[in-house]
Amino acid sequence: MDEGRSTRGVDGAAGEEHAEVRLTYRPEPADTLAGLRVRERIKRTGLVLRWVFLALWVGHWLFSTVRHGNADVVSTVLFVFVVLVLWGYPRIQAAHVQRLVGWQGEYRVTVSSAGITCANDHSTLFQQWVFFRGYRETAGHFVLISRDPNIMCLDVLPKRGAHEAGEVDRLRALLDEHTARV
Amino acid sequence: MTEGLSSTTEDARVELRYELGQADWSDAFRARGRAHGLRGRLRGLAGPVFLVAVVWLLSRDALMAGFALLGGLSGLALRTRVLAGRHARVGASLGQWNVTVSDSGDGVRFGCTDMETRRGWRSLGGYVESAAGFVLLSPAPHLLVVHYLPKRAMGRDTVDRLRGTLGRHLPARGYRPPRH
Questions:
Q1: Which chain B residues have a beta carbon less than 8 Å from that of A15?
Q2: Whole domain around residue A110: which residue ranges?
Q3: Is the ipTM of this complex over 0.90?
Q4: Cα–Cα nearest to B127, from B78, B96, B159, B167
Q5: Which of A4, B95, B101, B121 has the fewest CB atoms found within 10 Å of its own CB?
């Protein structure tokens, strides 16, 4: 990687002593769902489109019902289906991601001044802080978002992965030190 | 764009440096489409077919259904371009990729200015070769694009060595003989 960089890298050879927090956990669909929700709220486009789409279907169903004097069966079934799809789509995405990551077993994440290293038995990913635009904290997770406009990359750090007292607070302090709350 | 070769009895390595643009990602996603075969392509038509069915049920109008089919098929055709464009925009901010493909358990390492990834061979589900590059895929059944290795970043010898290394560790999917 870049010359002169004081980073940990995928080999885990830290160039200098850093305060660090370690998390160990097995990924769950709820982790991905938390990340997707954060991304949706920050990007807003998807959220707005979803509500507009739903409003159009509600309008269509109401118009059809008023015009015919009773609820049209086809229109009602399609409306219910659309509601189910809108509700279920993020969950389907989360289940999809779970199938991709779940088989890789335990994830070991190290958050340090150098960046974030995520390793399992099959792969390792190291990201410098500059890769991220910022983070948002939810009840059970810290969600880091990449700096590209489409937020193509999400790092979800579940708080359940912290096994020592005060580690969540130390993790929050590290995140505040190196990236912004969004 | 440079390449490097190093070889020992235990471990043959191919090292590459390159930048990826929209044309590269387009090639990667088109090649990935071949990896899914006919069944995958038919599954991809499910969306437009469903759209046509919905429009027909609501409008009972063949012309509307025809427009919906046209719209759905156009969306499918544009999907690869949109995906490639998104990846290219992200890639542009990441800069040059440094990639090492190794015969050892290390597998593939690819990194850029802000990040570095090591993928062991078991974390990959195969590769597809196109005329312009090699596409590394995630495990089946998803076969998502993990990374793209453009042939323009390597000489013909390196292409053969890389094909050999990938072939020893990964199944070739949707194989199409390369054009030189």
A1: none
A2: 20-28+103-178
A3: no
A4: B167
A5: A4
Both A115 and A95 in one domain: the answer is no
Q: What is the pLDDT of residues A137-171, one digit of tens each?
A: 999 999 999 988 888 889 999 999 998 888 999 99
Give contacts of A100 with chain B, Cβ < 8 Å. 138-139, 142, 144
Distance between CA atoms of residues A47 and A49, nearest Å = 5
| SS3 label, residue B151 | helix
Instruction: Find, among B6, B179, B42, B13, the residue nearest to B102 by Cα.
Output: B13
Structure tokens at A179: 């990236």
Predicted confidence band of residue B57 (pLDDT cuts 50, 70, 90):
confident
Distance CA A56, CA A89 (A): 18
Tell me the whole-structure pTM to 2 decimals.
Answer: 0.79
Q: Of the candidates A99, A125, A147, which is a domain's last residue?
A: A99
Answer whether A84 touches B (CB < 8 Å).
no
Strand partners, B171: none
Segment A1-14 shows an average pLDDT of 49
